[in-house]
Design a protein that fits this description.
Largest sheet: none
Low-confidence stretches: none
Number of helices: 2
Mean pLDDT: 83
Oligomer: single chain
Strand content: under 5%
Distance between the termini: 126 Å
Radius of gyration: 45 Å
Length: 115
């Protein structure tokens, strides 16, 4: 009977190790989560630095040296026109037809005249 009374008091007070574990458990889970996140952050940061170094080495190895000629700048006139050979073609071809049929009797302008 004394044992039962002691067990009841033990359970009623809530001072048992099980209750303490349940009180501490959320804090422990939170701390473990924070530690895992921080550890992953530093791991990812280290991997990123390694990749950046490898990429920089690869870029420096790929670029060949280029010979450069340096000249002094001089004042000179700028030409606004460029003469190039070529053909002029329209983007779209258009066939014009009149609404009525007829014959052209006389052409009063020459090719190249403004109208």
């Amino acid at each position: 009977m004394e044992k039962n009374l002691a067990d009841k008091k033990y359970k009623e007070k809530g001072s048992g190790p099980l209750k303490k574990i349940w009180q501490i458990l959320p804090v422990m889970v939170l701390l473990m989560t924070i530690l895992i996140v921080v550890g992953l952050f530093f791991s990812i940061q280290e991997k990123k630095n390694q990749l950046d170094e490898e990429q920089a080495k690869a870029l420096s190895a790929k670029k060949p040296h280029v010979n450069v000629i340096v000249l002094q700048a001089k004042k000179a006139a700028i030409k606004n026109s460029i003469n190039l050979p070529g053909f002029i073609e329209p983007w779209e071809k258009l066939k014009m037809l009149s609404k009525i049929q007829g014959t052209v009797l006389e052409v009063l302008v020459k090719e190249g005249d403004s109208v």
